[in-house]
Amino acid sequence: MRVRLLESDEYMHPLGPESNFNESMYINCFDHSSKVGVWLRMGNRANEGHAEMTVCIYLPDGRVGFMFNRPKIDNNDALDAGGLTWTMHTPFEHLSVAFDGKVLMLNDPYQMSNPKEAFKSNPFVECSVHLDFRGKGRLSMFGGEPEEPHERPEEQFARGHYEQLVSGSGSLHVGGEEFHVSGFGLRDHSWGPRFWQAPWYYRWLTANFGDDLGFMASRVARKDSAGTRGGFVWDDGNIHLCDDVKISTVTHSSEHFHERVTGTLTSSSSERTWSFEGVVQSLIPLRNRRQDSAGNWLHTRISEGMTQWRMTEGKHAGRIGYGMSEYLDQIIDSQPVGIAE
User: Fold this and answer.
1) Nearest to 47 by CA among 72, 79, 65
2) How far apart are CA 217 and CA 230, in angstroms?
3) For residues 323 and 37, what is the distance between their CA atoms, to the nearest angstrom?
4) How far apart are CA 258 and CA 46, in angstroms?
5) Parallel, antiparallel, or unpaired: how do β-strands 50-58 and 213-221 relate?
6) 108 DSSP assignment
7) What distance in Å separates the CA atoms of residue 211 and residue 135, rounded to the nearest whole number?
């Protein structure tokens, strides 16, 4: 599948006619010394009249600062709403993100399984995030916009989508505590029609071990087909495109939240494999609901786990890094559909 990626794609795209047109940027960053983690996302849904703004901060003692809001917007001119602002300085090389507002402080982030109760029973605290991100240029980018459509209309999750490993630095203030952040992470940018109910389930793993090593692994399952497996590895200054990933998960509790992940990425073109294992350090379950054409409520769970990763084979065996394990599942009869993987 051929894809194109232009410098102009680092900026905003024309608002499409689809009612569910979404343009979003996501970024995460983890300080390996302090064990502070943060991810931020802004998704413009201008045809629906709002954006989706999310801020999530993992503190070293297990608490999580979290905020989700749907600020009103009427255009797709910028990612700037609800106190969260994205600024592109140099395509493929330099981006900054800032947030000023309040977050919900959760001693037990699993309370977000019931967001109404969580928002009612936990305190709000002042928060500011000011982070500067650097990438390694055009050759470190993964993805783009396919030259030919490759998904059925009802399964579209993005028309264009790309990712990049980054380094990040800056400051984070939350509830009177101050942290200097100097770490590594991953960013993505996507645009086009999106319903969170389009995948049957997916597993999205991001890991960054330093300037010389990191990976993204993706497993997207469809209800009536095999879906896709793949990702990339950044290894000693080269990006290796991977055409397969095998993932195994250990879960806990009756709700089957993931707690341990093992996997192997394979690149046929490079004739190499990379094996890894991850242990979730802190997890917050999020929820998206939508009514279908018959008026039935569809329930999607997105479990966001800050994860410590360890490479288990080859020259990088034993290397420790940090990142995310994001598990999206449709919930049927109170159970996530992807338990088996």
Assistant:
1) 72
2) 6
3) 8
4) 33
5) unpaired
6) S
7) 10
Q: What is the pLDDT of residues 37-79, one digit of tens each?
A: 999 999 999 999 999 999 999 999 999 999 999 999 999 999 9
The total number of residues shown for the chain amounts to 341
Could you tell me which residues come within 8 angstroms of residue 131 by beta carbon, excluding any fewer than 6 positions away? Answer: 27, 29, 38, 96, 97, 98, 168, 169, 170, 171, 172, 181
Name the region of 294 (left: φ>0; alpha: ψ -120 to 50; beta: rest).
Answer: alpha
Check residue 72 and report its DSSP letter: B
Tokens 């939240």 belong to residue: 257
Return the closest-CA partner of residue 204 out of 304, 113, 286, 282. 304
Q: Which of 172, 144, 164, 169 is nearest to 55 (CA)?
A: 172
CA nearest to 162, candidates 223, 231, 83: 231
pTM metric for this prediction: 0.96
Cβ(218)–Cβ(230) below 8 Å: yes
**Angstrom distance (rounded) from CA 271 to CA 223:** 31
Q: Which distant-in-sequence residues (6+ apart) come within 8 Å of 12 by Cβ?
A: 23, 76, 77, 78, 79
Rounded-to-integer distance, Cα 173 and Cα 122, Å: 18
Residue 235 in tokens: 């290894």
Q: Is 209 left (phi over 0), alpha (psi -120 to 50) or beta?
A: alpha
| Strands 177-193 and 201-210, sheet pairing | unpaired
Residue type present at position 133: F
**Token couple for 140:** 């470190």
User: What is the per-residue pLDDT across 327-337, written as a single tens digit (0 to 9) for each?
Assistant: 999 999 999 99
Give the DSSP H or E segment for 325: strand 320-332
